[in-house]
Amino acid sequence: PLVTTGELVTRAATARSAVAAFNIITLEHVEAVITGAESLGAPVVLQVSENAVKFRYGRLLPLARAAVVAAERAAVPVALHLDHVRSDDLLRQAADAGFGSVMYDAAHLPYAENLAATRAAADWAHSQGLWIEAELGEVGGKQGRPALDAHAPGARTDPAEARAFVADSGVDALAVAIGSAHAMTERTATLDHDLLKRLTTTLDVPLVLHGSSGVRDDELTAAVAGGIAKVNVGTALNIAMTGAIREFLAAHPEAVDSRTYLSVGRDAMAEAARRIIQLLGR
Ligand code: G3H
Ligand code: ZN
């Protein structure tokens, strides 16, 4: 059934586990993530980023409608989340498209502007009954910017600043920069667990880890034990899908029917999703 991100994150935070949130791009991503979650009887979040909407010719609804129907028919609770939104126009499409939550991303702006834009987004989201996540400190590797940004101390989330940001913006959850970066294809990120500890003791909202594809299993479970309640994963699915398809097409140069390789890619994503969901616990 279709549920909200807010209830899944609250449940995870209470259980000191984390809910996995996977970025979906195609219908195969939707089906694979739900299959992986169903194999474990675990809830999951499907998220559509602004970049994915751009890829879909700027249209949110076709993929969103498919995801809503898939979620409604799933054997496990599935939430829909709009991820890394910068456009106010896209933000305002969230509720109508069936999404229960949004991540508003103004982390690239100076503090005061990030706060003002996030507060306006949070006011609007709450007026629509939406749960809203924002980011402070900047998780690097977005839109082609070097992932190394995330490792610069200045990009990390400052606990005192984060406390004021959450109080003044009214957001329901905070994405924190503690050493992960987006779009890493090797799992070499080193998380600052000491900073995470200071953030969890200073803040009273659930914390979100972005760029989780670049984080090793032991680092990820330590982050969940340290208070991360939502784990965002995108690249790991694409690595699985593309690798499986590449291998299949190399072995079957005569293949023509797209179902032959899409099903191989979908199976690989389902297995990758299952592995990560299992790691995060319940
Ligand atoms: O918001 C999405 C995530 O942060 C995904 O990051 O593609 O590096 O796993 P990733
Ligand atoms: Zn992200």
TrEMBL record:
Checking CDD domains in the record gives:
TBP_aldolase_IIB
Listed cofactors: Zn(2+)
Kindly give the InterPro entries that the UniProt entry links to this protein: Aldolase_TIM, Class_II_FBP_aldolase, FBA_II
Any matching Pfam family: F_bP_aldolase
**What NCBIfam families does the entry give?**
cbbA
Spell out the protein name for this chain.
Class II fructose-bisphosphate aldolase
- Biological source species: Streptomyces doebereineriae
